[in-house]
Amino acid sequence: MDRNQAHRNRRRMLKGLHFVGLFLVMSIICIPGLWIILNSFRPTVEIMAKPPVWNPSFTLDHYRAMFGGAGQGGVPVFSYLWNSIVISVTSTGIAVLIGMSGGYAFARYKFSGKSGYFVGLMLFRAVPGVALSLPLFIVFAKVGIIDTHFGLILVYVAMNVPFTIWLTDGFFRQIPKELHEAAEIDGCTRWQAFWKVEFPVARSGVASAAIFAFLTSWNEFALASQLTRSVGSKTMPVGLLDFTAEFTINWGGMCALAVLMILPALILTFIVQKHLIAGLTFGGVKG
Amino acid sequence: MRRRIPEWFVLLMPAFIVIAAVVLIPLIFSLYSSFTPYKLTRPSTLWTWIGERNYERILTDWKFWAAFGRTILFLTIALNLELIFGLGIALMVNKVTWGQRTLRTVLMFPMMFSPILVGFQFKFIFNDNVGLVNNVLQSLGSDAALPWLVDGKLAMFSILFAEIWMSTSVFAILILAGLFAMPRDPLEAAKVDGCTPWQSFRHITLPFLMPFIYIAMTIRSLDVARAYDIVQIMTGGGPARRTELLWTLMSRTGYVDAKMGLANAMGYVSILLSIAFTIYFFRKLSAARAELGMGA
Amino acid sequence: MTEVTLSNVIKRYGEHQAVHGIDLEIRDGEFVVLVGPSGCGKSTTLRMIAGLEDISGGEVSIGGRVVNDLPPRERNISMVFQNYALYPHMCVRENLGFSLHIAKRPESEITSAVNEAAAILGLEELMDRKPAALSGGQRQRVAMGRAIVRHPDVFLFDEPLSNLDAKLRTQMRVEIKKLHQKVGNTIIYVTHDQVEAMTLADRIVLMRDGHIVQVGTPLELFNAPVNTFVATFIGSPPMNLLDGVVTENRTVRLIDGQELPIPSSPRESVQPGQKVKYGFRADNLSPVGHGVSDEGETADIALRIDLSEPLGTETLLFATLASTEIQCKMLNPRPVTSGETMTCRLALEKAHIFDAQTTQVIRSN
Q: Membrane-spanning residues where (chain B) (predicted)?
C-alpha cells in the first residue's frame, strides 16, 4: 500500500510540474506579442510614463497616424505595405513555379550526382543575407536595378527557390509514381499528367511551400535594407526603422506597424499549419 | 534514338539560372573584390590587386577574432538551448491530452515573426526606461533600472533571449511531429520490460527523434545569419562592440566604413561558417536516417 | 485484331540486364499470365509493353504495329496497377471518365461509357465517392473500371490482387475471369502467385532471371514441366524431388539404397550411372486404397508418416524418404497417427525424371 501511495504522490507532483512548466512556456511565447499589440493601442504618454501605468487606456491614435500618411512622424505606411505586397506575392509566385519544377525533377527523375546537386542548392540558401548584400549592392547598382521592385523580387526568388525545392520534393515523393503512369496510359502527355493529376494531389504541399516563401520575403530585412532606398521600393521591415530617430523611438507607432506586419503572416500560417509541418518532415525524413 | 537534353535538367534549369544570377555571380565578384582594397567611395580601387592582404588583415585583427569567437559561442549556446527547450516543450505538449491543437498553434507563433520585428520587440521589452521587464521589476519593488541593452553581459543575454524566443519553436514543432509519428509498441514493450521512464526516453524515444532533430538543425543552420537582424536592431553590435558578431562587423565595415573589399573578405569567412554548419547537419541527418532505415 | 508480339525484347539498366531477349506471341483475345519469382523481369516486360520503360533492344508490336518508341497514350492500352493508382482528388465517376475527358470525347459519350463500365463492375452506388472512402476490393473494381472504359486493344494487369486479403483475392480472381469473358480483349497479367496464374490464364509464361522458362497452358505446365524449376514453382504443394542414380536395370537408386522404377517415357533415354532427380506430385503418391488407382504401372513404397494435415476431403501426409521430406495425399482419409508406417502407391506414369546437372526433364523423343 505504501509503495502505491508513494507512486501516486509522485504522479500528482509530476502532473503539477507539467502544468506549471507548460504555463510558463506559453506565457513566454505569448507575452511579447501581446505586449506589442497592447502598446499599439496605448497613448505615447502612457507608454513613456514613469512610474509605469498598469491599467491601460485605449486609443487608435497610432493607427490613425499610420494610415493618415504623412501624419505623425510621416511614415508612408501605405507605400511600404504596397511594396511589401507586390514584392512578396510576385517573388513567391515565381519562386514556387521554379522551385516546383526543380522539386519535381528531384522527386521523379534518377540522375547521377543527385544528392550533390541537392545539397549544393541548399548551400546557396545558407549564404548569409548580409554577406550577399555587399556584392549584390554593387552589382545591382551597376546594372541599375537597385531600389526597384524588380531587383528585390529577383533576390527573393533566388533565396526561396532552394527551400521550395526541398519542400515540394518531399511532397511529390509522397505521390506514388504509378499515378502519373496511370495518367499517361489514360492518354495524358507528361505535361498533362502533371497538371491534371500530380499537381492537384500535391496542392496542399505546394501551398505550404508558397506560404514559407511568402513569409521569408515578407519578413526579410538584411538584403532589403541595403537594396532599397526610397519610398518607392522600401518594404515594411525596412520601414520599421523609420520610427527610430537618433535618440528617440516612436514605440506606439512602431507597434502599430508591427501588428500590420504580423497580421497577414498570422492568418496565412494558420490556414496551412498542418501541411507546413508535414512538408518539413517529409522533405527531411523520407529524403 | 533521339538524343536530347534530359528532362530533369530542363526542369532544374530555371533554378540554376536564377541562383547563378543572383547568388553565384555576386559571390564570384565579391571573391574577386576581397583581393582588392575596394572602397565604395573610390571605385577605381576595384582594379588594384592586393592579393590576400585583406585576409591577412582580418586574421591579424583581434576585433575580427573577437567577433568570430563571439559568433561561434553565440551559435553554440543558442542552438543547444533551442534544442533543449524545443525538446522539453515538445515532450510537455505531447503529454497534454486536451487542447493540444491550440498549444501547437501557439507554438508556431514566433515562427511568423520577422527577425527584425523580434529585434524591435525585445528592444522595447528590455528597454531600460519604458521596457516591460524593468517596469515589472520596479513595480515589484526593485529600485534600480537594469541596463539590459547597455551593459555588455546583459545585452548579450537579451540578444540570446530574443534569438532563442524566435527559433525554439522550429525545434519544438518538428520534434513534436516526430513524437506524433512515433510507433507506440516499442515504448510499451520497454515499459513491460522494466525500463524506467528515463531509460525508455534515452534508449527508444531519443534515437527515434534524432532525424527530426537534425531536420530542425539543418533548417535552422540554413538561416543562422538571421541573428544579424536581431543584433543590428537591438544593439547594433554595441555597447562598445561587446555584442559584435561576425555579421554586424561585416556590415559596419562595408556600409559604414565603405571598405567593401575588406568586408567581402569577412563575408567569405561567414559564408564558410554557414556552409560548415549546414553540411555538418546534413551529414548527421543522412546518418541518422540510414540508422533508422528511413532513407529512400 | 490485337495480337501482341515481342521479338527478342531486351531491357538493360546500365550494366545490369533485366530481360534477356524475350520472344512471345500473344493471340487476339488471349489471357496470358506472366509469372515468376520477384526480380524475374515479368513486371519490366509488362511495363515495356505499356511504354512505361524504354525498350533497350528488340521489338514490341501491338496489333501488327511496332510501338517501340510510342508513348503510352498512343498504344491504346490500359493498365491496372498493383496499388490501383486511383486519382485521389477525383471521385469514382471522374476517375472512370478521366481518359475519355483527356481524349476530348463528347460529354454524352463519356457518361454512357462510364455508366456502362460501372454497371459491369457494380459500382453504381459508389460513383460520387473519393478513392479514400473505398475499401480495397472497391478500389480494385474502380481501377478495372477505369481500364475498360476506353475499350482498349490490350489490358495490362500488374499484380492487381497482391494488396488484397486472401478471401477478396479469390473473389476478384473470379471477377477478372468473368470480365475477360464479357469483354473478350487481349489481357496480359503479371503475378508472382502461381495459383492466380493457373486459375486465370489461357497460357502461362513462366519467367526466371529475365528469361522465359516455359510457355504453355496451365495443364501443360503442371503435367509436363520442362525442368525442376517449373516443377517446383507450379502446383501446390511443390513437386517432390529425390536425388538418385540410374542403375543397370533401369531403376533409380536413391541415396538410402532404395530403388524406384523409371517411368516408361524416359526409360530408354537415361544412361546407367546418370545422376538424376526423381520427381512426382503429392497427388500421385497415396496410401494404398486412398487415391492412386491400380491401373497403369505403379510402385509401392513403405513410408513412415511424420505428420498429417487433415484438410477435410483429403489429408496431406508428410514423410521422409531417402533423407528428403516429401508430401503425399490421402483421399477419403481416415485418422493417421504420427509415426505410423503406411504402404503408399506411386503412379509411375505421372512421375518425371530430371537430369541432376542441367535440371532439364528427360523424356523419350
A: 9-32, 72-93, 105-126, 154-180, 265-282
